[in-house]
Every structure is written in structure tokens, then in C-alpha cells.
Amino acid sequence: MLPFDPHSPERTTTKAAFYSLEEEKTFALPLPELHGKVVCGLSFGWLALMDEAAAVTLLNPFTGNRVALPPADKSIAEASSKSVAVTDGDGGRRWVLQHSSGDASPVTLDKMRDVFFRGIVFSTAPNNFGDGCVAMAVLADSSEVAFCRAGDKAPWTLIETNVECCVSSVVHCQDRFVAIGCLGEISIISRNIAVDDAQPRPARPVSSLPEPAEMCHRSYLQVNGQLHLVGVAMQAFHGEWPFGRHAVVYKCDLTGETTPVWSMVTEASDFALFVSKDFNMGFGGASVSKIKRNCIYLSEPMYSDHGEDSDHSPEIVDIATGTSDEISYPITMEGSEALCWIRPNLWT
Q: How many independent structural domains does the chain possess?
């Protein structure tokens, strides 16, 4: 999915462009539902969208199906040490951020993920009513996460993960949510969270990846029932510029009773990994026509920093050799908007 303009003049003209790796062509879909919203998650072919009122909607861009989630409230922002207040005006419900100086500033669309939900993942693809789907949210800057049940009017529930600093990513793996801290530790959240009226116990950290600080970017995904990490490692030598960077892959088996241990993956002969860098998440899948196995598909280059002059050139990295190539497509894009991989879901 390529960047779109959420501020297009008219709702009816809002479109999203997609590039198909298999067909090697781009196509556009009219998606007025994207107008005035920011993408804050993607799972099972569905997008999680948030507007300036902090209302959250799940959207399947290929079928048009939608499911509403409860809106964010003050407790979500406060969990990230953000003081906010809600205002109601001619433009509808909006949020303002209250600073320690006493000043206040509006929480505009481009700042919503920095105040409320950084990312949202689902336990399963929601149906038209959301039955059975649990959503888990990474907050802006917190060791807590929040969950809700799609289609339920109950507000988001906060859970303490006990990670040392803040949660950077959440993955649904083996019927459980796994929260990953920014220092690399993982915290497994009880399976009972999906049960009605369950009282979740505080999650406990399980293990850390050795030397995570050497990675300038990390993305997490579930492949074949195992938690995987795709990282971009830096190699800095005295007096050398630019720094050397290379992609690495680790996996962690969560099925055993002993403490899970990360091990390096040097070959993924039967699948490919797709990583959306801005969302710290991705997915894996069996290689099909024109999609190379044993490779990492990065939504943007390893050196991309999402600045004003971000390079929107997807990159493919060979896991075995470490070599990489750009993926060319017939559209030139500029700006800081993020790209993301999405696996079409045509059934829900």
C-alpha cells in the first residue's frame, strides 16, 4: 500500500494506490473511508484507522467491510504521560495536549499516534460484526498495552506488561499476544484475555534478545507459529562513514516450558518475510510466483529514517547472502508518508 493523502479536498476523491509484486503493476482503489484518518495498524489484510477524535475503525480496503472499535479516551493518553482534554466545536470532537507550561496545542491527525495508539494488531480477521476478534494496541510511550473486543462497546482495558521501558511492538502468536519492549525483552500475555469478563493478570517478561542496542530498527512477526525478528544491524568502524548496515533475522519458539531463546535464521527456504518499517510489524508467507523465497521485503530502504526527504524505494534482501536490491515500480513518491505491505483478504 502506497502513501495516500488523508487531507484530500473531498472525501469522495480519496484514493489509495497499491503496487502488486505478483502482477508488477500499480492500481488505485477509491477509499473515502481513509479521508481524515491515519493508519495505525494492519493485520490479516485489514487496516486500523484513527481520526482526530480518536475514533478507531477497522477497514478491509479490498472488500469495504468495516468494524468499529471503541474510541481512545484520556486514560490511553495518560498511560503515556500525556495530559489531554477533549473539546467540542463546529468541527466535531477534538483533543488538545496540555503542556507543563500551561499552554495547550491541538492534537492534529499527524500527531495522533504520538499521543494515543502507536499501533494496533488483531487476534484474527474480524467479520462484519467483529465476533471473536480481540484488538491489542501499542500506546505512544508506555509499558502498558490496551485491548478491546471488536464490536464490543466496552472501553479499552489497560494491562501492565512489566517491560523495563516501553512497549514498541505487539505480535499475536500461538493464540497469545506477545508484547516486545524497546530494549528487546518480550512479555507474554495470558490466553484468557479473549474470554468474556476475564481479569487479565499482569504480564511477566520472558527473555531478551542479546545486544538489541546494535539494531537501529527491529520488526516482529509470526511465521509458522514462531515469533520472528527482522532487524537492521549497524556495523561502525572507527573513522568510517557511512556506517555499514545489514539485515538479520532471529526466531524464538514460545511453545516450550523453558525460557524462550532467540536463534539466528540463516535460511528461510520455504517463505518470504514482509516488513513494514514504520509499524514495527510484518508477516511471512509461502513464496509464490514472482515472490522470492528466503528473502526479506522491506517497505523502505534499510537506511530510511522517515524524514522529509524519505526514500520510498522498497528493498529486497537475500537472507543467506545479505545482498539487497531495490524494488522498482512506476511511481515516484516524495514526502514522509509511510509505506506498508498488506496481504489482501478477500473473504472477510
A: 1
Residue at 337 is within a domain = no
Domain, as residue range, for 50? 11-326
Residue 263 CA to residue 250 CA, distance in Å, equals 5
From first to last of the 348 residues of the chain, give the pLDDT tens digit: 766 667 666 666 678 888 888 888 888 888 889 889 999 998 898 999 999 999 999 999 999 999 999 999 999 999 999 999 999 877 788 999 999 999 999 999 999 999 999 999 999 998 766 668 899 999 999 999 999 988 888 899 999 998 888 999 999 988 889 999 888 888 888 766 756 555 556 666 666 665 544 677 788 888 888 888 888 776 655 555 455 667 888 888 887 666 777 888 888 777 888 888 766 667 776 656 678 888 888 887 766 554 444 556 788 888 888 888 887 765 555 444 557 888 888 777
| Rounded Cα–Cα distance for residues 70 and 57 (Å) | 9
Q: Is residue 331 part of a domain?
A: no
Residue 6 in domain? no
| Cα maximum dimension of the chain | 59
C-alpha distances out from residue 190 to 41, 120, 193, 228, 337, Å: 22, 18, 6, 20, 35
Q: Which three cell numbers stand for residue 6?
A: 488523508
- On whether residue 154 sits in a domain, the answer given is yes
